Structures are given as structure tokens and as C-alpha cells.
Amino acid sequence: MRCRTLFVSTLLISWLFVTALAAQKRTGNAAPPNGAPGSSVNVLTYHNDNLRTGLNSQETVLTPANVNPASFGKLNFLTTDGAVHGEPLYVANLVINGVARNVLYAVTEHDSIYAFDADTGAQLWKKTALLKGESPTMSQIFDCQSIESEIGITNTPVIDRNKLPNGAMYFVAMSTDANSVIHQRLHAVDLVTGAELFGGPVDIQAQFPGTGAGSKNGLMTFDPKQYAERVGLLEANGNIYIAFTSHCDHKPYNGWVMQYNASTLQQLSVINLTPNGKNGGIWQSGAGLAADSDGYIYFLDGNGTFDTTLDSNGFPINGDYGNAMLKLSNSAPLAVADYFNMYNTIEESTADLDLGSGGAMLLPDIIVGSNKLHLIVGAGKDGNIYVANRDNMGKWNPNNNNNLYQQLTAALANGEFAMPAYFQDTVYFGGTSDAIKAFPIVNGKLASSPSSRTSHTFFYPGVTPSITANGTQNGILWVVENTPSRALRERTISQVVPSVLWAYNALDLTQKLYDSNQMGFRDQFGPGNKFITPMIANGKVYVGARTGVAVFGLLHAH
């Protein structure tokens, strides 16, 4: 009897195990088998989270003690068919072909999507975003080399692991069909197979009331040819948010934000930020739209029309918000819920000193006494750091910026073409032709002077930091430096200038840990792209480049 009971119990346990494993495989979240990677870290969106802090606080492998030229360097180079402008993304323990893997996703300007085994470098699958007869759009037709050669997928995608059957990755792709018609489409693809989901892709179309540049009969109509989707995608409120900017300020253009249902790809709402004016594109040097825990959307837009006549609530009377720090509603229809604009915004827009050259970051809640502060930080071409209270951003005052929570004037010597990062009550900026600077938060405000800075100057366009730590310990700041001079940008000579991965002690920026030029050719990975943000997960650093993704890690790891 005991043997029979034991036999039945064993069968029951085995059946339960197999059933559970099968269910996990269907959802793509199976625990790894023996010998498989056990990472629990996912990087599913630009700069790690919707606040855009750039912080991975679960890095247990890389430390200031082992990131040095002797023990750390380039492990691999994952070749792609085009430039990787979007930040690579990372999904841990995803079951593909019956095996739990850590998976790296990369998108290219050749309109391709790649899934790589993040540990071995093996290509798991490759798909194209092109429809039959299409090709990537050639940038030469715009007389603009901001995105070199061809334009396909420029933006950083966003991943939702909970979308059936295996999770979904969303991105926008640009293409040209056989009749020379240019398309912009929103895609959602299966993480395991790369197959299109939800009946996609969908052509991006939009109209908005207005009489601004390019309008007809009182309507602004989105022209796919006129725009680039450089900004990282955002998922919030069960929706996907995308935003557009111009090709090298070629007119006419305006600032568009669009909202799509993440489960159906149905367009829910659109807003134009300069509907009765011009310009105001949203590019943020590739940084993603941000969102707070209540689902409000935040970003910076570029130089453009701002209505200096305000309504009774302090909003521009014609709905034109060029050169502003913006907060959008957390539900459809999209609308401006609050904003800040500097007092001299007209002069700055005229001089092309737009705030939207940089990206916005939301700070985690800051407690000062009995107050809980909700702050947003951003900087642009004028070199000032602007800090706004997200609960009352300040709007516009024609005389001064005293309505703003805080301003650090000329804190960044030559402006910002990147975005900051956050770690341990400190905000890190890597302005153009400037050192990386650490600004501690003291009594709810940024210190007027940096507590630490690098000895190295990072030339145009500056750098966007990413930070790794194990909780509050072992903080490392990572950046990728591209062409060494603004004079070289977008010229053929930049194609032979290698990009450089740098690592610093995050608590002391005078302590450089590593750079990828230190060992000569050993760790070099060729030229980079105009804007790129390093992604770090599970002991490895991934860097997008012109022809693929460079992989760095410990050289003698077992």
C-alpha cells in the first residue's frame, strides 16, 4: 500500500511539474532549467523605466573592483544589417524552442528586428518590418544626414512581457514602397517568433484641427514623409505613445504625439503641439517619452511657436506650446495638463536654442519634511538645467522664471543633446563638449555646483549616462562617446572614428574605471551613431553601433 501510494504521489508530482512547465512555456516566462541563465533583470524600455532614470539597481556581477582593462572588455560583436540607433532591450528567461534564454533585441535602420541569445550571441531570429516591394527610406532625399544613409527603425522599442501569447515588442518603422510612397507604421511583434501581432502593422495617420504650417481647410494632416520617429516609445495606461520630429528642421513640420491601444493597435487620440503655428518637433536626442505612476506623459519639445497670449487658466490661447516642458493627460483625448516655458522662449526659439534637444527625466519621490515632491528635470541648448514641480510646473511668465521650481543657469557649458540619469539622490548630466557632472539633491533641490565631475570632456553631442548598482552599492556610471568633434559629425570621416565605452565610479567621477580604447584594438567596436545609450543587464554591457551591437563583460567569467 505504501509503495502504491508513493507511486501515485510520484506520478501526481510529475504531472503537476509538467503541467506547470507547459503553462510557463506558453507565456514565455518559464524558470530556467539547470545550466540555463538565471537572470531576473529585464530592460524593457528606454533608460530602464518610465521615469527614464537609466538605473539598473540589480547588477550583481559588475563592480568598481572588476571593471578594469585587465578583467573587463569586449566579448562579442553581434552583426546586423544596418545601424542600431535604438537602445537594445533585454528579456530574461524567455522560452524559445523549449529553452529558457536571456534574449537581446535590436532594431536597425535597415528595417530589421533581431533576437539574439544574450549569453552566447547566437541569432535566434531575424524579421523585417518591410512589406512586399518596400525598402528603407534613403535619407539623401531629405538632404539630411542626421540619420545616415537609410531610415528604418530609429526609435527604441518598448516591450510588454504580459501580452499574449509570449509578450510583445512595439516599434515604429519607416519605409518606401515601389511607388516611392513613404510610410510610417506601428508594429507589435511576438517576442518568441517575431510574428506580427494584433492585426498589425498599422499605417500611422492623423489629423488635428489647426491653421498652422502645412494645414489645409483648418486641418493639420500628418505627412509620413515629413517626420522621423526618433523618440523612444512609451507604454503607459495600457497604451503605446509615440512622438515625431522633423528631418533636419525641413519645413513644414509640427510636434505630434499619438496614443494607441496596446492590445489592438487602434489609434485612440492624437495631439499637435503647434496646431496654429510651426515647428515644435519632439526629438529629445532619442530619449523616450516619460510617464509617472499616475500615467501622465512628460517630454520636452523643440523650438517653435508659443502663444504669449494666455487664457484665464494660464494656457496658450491658440494651443501652441513650442520650446516647452510638457505634461499630457493620462487618458484620451490627449491634452496638455500643465507645462513650463521660459520667459524668453520667443528669443530662444528664434535663435534655435530649443529646450527639446535634451530629454526629460522624472525623479523618484523626494521627501522634504512632511512634503512629498514630484519633480521633473531637463536641459536643452541654452545650458540651463530646469527643475519643475510636476504638480505645478509653472507655466509662462513674461518677466522671469520665478514660477519654476528651480533653475541652474549655465550649468552645462555648451548645452544638452542627451538626457540625465539618477542614482543615490544624485542627477548626472553629460552635456556637449563638457565633463559629466554629478548634481546631488539637497533639501529637495539640485546643488548649485556639481559634487563631482570627470576629467575627460565629451565632445558633441555629449553623452547619456546609464548606471548600474547592486542596491545602493557598487555604483558604476556608463556612457558611450561618439565622434570626437562637432566638426566631424555627419561627415564621412566619422565612419572611421571609433566610439568609446567609458565607465566611472558613480560616487566619484574622478575615478575612471575603464575605456574601450585603453587596450588598443582589443575592445574597439567601430564607429557609433549620433545618439546611443548603453544598456547593461546580467553582467554585460550592450552598445549599439553602425553595424551591430558590441557586447562587453568580464573576460574570464565562468
Tell me what you see in this structure.
Helix content is 6%, strand content 35%. Strands 1-36-37-38-39 form a 5-stranded mixed beta sheet, with no helix packed on it. Strands 15, 16, 17, 18 and 19 form a 5-stranded antiparallel beta sheet that branches. Strands 20-21-22-23-29 form a 5-stranded mixed beta sheet, with no helix packed on it. A hairpin with a 2-residue loop joins strand 36 (466-470) and strand 37 (473-481). The longest helix has 26 residues, at 2-27.
Portion in strands: 35-45%
Bin the helical content: under 10%
Secondary-structure content class: mainly beta
CATH architecture descriptor = 8 Propeller
Sum up the overall morphology in one term: globular
Cα separation of the termini: 48 Å
- Overall domain count: 1
**Low-confidence spans:** 1-36, 484-495
Average residue pLDDT: 91
> Which CATH class is shown?
Mainly Beta
Per DSSP, the total helix count is: 2
Radius of gyration: 23 Å
* Largest sheet, spatial ordering of strands: 1-36-37-38-39
Kindly state the number of beta strands.
Answer: 42
Q: What is the makeup of the main sheet?
A: 5 strands, mixed
The CATH homologous superfamily corresponds to Quinoprotein alcohol dehydrogenase-like superfamily
CATH topology (fold) name:
Methanol Dehydrogenase, Chain A
What's the arrangement of secondary structure elements?
Layout: H1 2-27, E1 55-56, E2 72-79, E3 89-96, E4 99-107, E5 112-117, E6 123-128, E7 137-138, E8 150-151, E9 158-160, E10 168-176, E11 182-190, E12 202-203, E13 207-209, E14 219-221, E15 227-228, E16 234-236, E17 239-246, E18 256-261, E19 267-272, E20 290-291, E21 297-300, E22 325-328, E23 336-341, H2 345-350, E24 361-362, E25 366-368, E26 371-373, E27 375-379, E28 385-389, E29 395-396, E30 406-408, E31 421-422, E32 426-430, E33 436-442, E34 445-446, E35 452-453, E36 466-470, E37 473-481, E38 500-505, E39 508-515, E40 535-537, E41 540-544, E42 548-554
Parallel strand pairs: 1-36, 23-29
Antiparallel strand pairs: 2-42, 3-4, 4-5, 5-6, 7-8, 9-10, 10-11, 11-12, 13-14, 15-17, 16-17, 17-18, 18-19, 20-21, 21-22, 22-23, 24-27, 25-26, 27-28, 28-30, 31-32, 32-33, 33-34, 33-35, 36-37, 37-38, 38-39, 40-41, 41-42
